[in-house]
Design brief:
Blueprint: H1 3-39, H2 47-78, E1 94-97, E2 101-104, E3 109-113, E4 116-121, H3 126-131, E5 139-142, E6 145-152
Parallel strand pairs: 2-4
Antiparallel strand pairs: 1-2, 1-6, 3-4, 5-6
């Protein structure tokens, strides 16, 4: 297996671990919030008590949305095969330019791997939209910089 495929698989595995960690964190937060709401007892403060319960319910809804989004992200990542090579910039492509290295998988941030910086980016990101359907050798102008696509894996 080529070194680039190993990097792509390592980045893919990193994305899976990050999303799994987020799902675990969301699940634990939900459990703690449900416990807090359940253990609240009616106090003499009345309105203050109801406001606190309402705030906890809003937080529960927020965490449930995050959990749902992370579960969808996990499913989407699961449909990507990191062992395939791409010839154009699309979901699942590892793109190396003269300026930046990015893996089109999910907006998870910047990571160092083998002394190189890689960005895990969403297909919907402005960066990917500028590079969409471009191929090796193409020039892309993005945010005032010129990028030459050196490799796509």
């Amino acid at each position: 297996m080529k070194r680039s495929n190993t990097i792509k698989i390592d980045l893919y595995n990193l994305a899976q671990k990050l999303v799994a960690s987020k799902i675990k964190e969301n699940t634990e937060s939900l459990a703690a919030l449900k416990e807090s709401v359940g253990s609240e007892t009616k106090s003499t403060a009345g309105d203050k008590h109801e406001t606190g319960r309402a705030m906890m319910h809003l937080e529960q809804e927020k965490v449930m949305r995050q959990l749902s989004n992370n579960q969808k992200l996990k499913e989407m990542i699961g449909r990507i095969n990191p062992e395939t090579s791409d010839e154009s910039v699309r979901l699942g492509a590892l793109v190396i330019t003269n300026q930046v290295r990015f893996y089109v998988i999910a907006g998870l941030g910047q990571f160092d791997l083998n002394d190189e910086k890689y960005y895990l980016v969403s297909y919907q990101s402005d960066l990917v939209q500028a590079f969409k359907n471009k191929e090796k050798g193409d020039m892309v102008h993005f945010k005032g910089q010129s990028h030459r696509i050196e490799e796509i894996f």
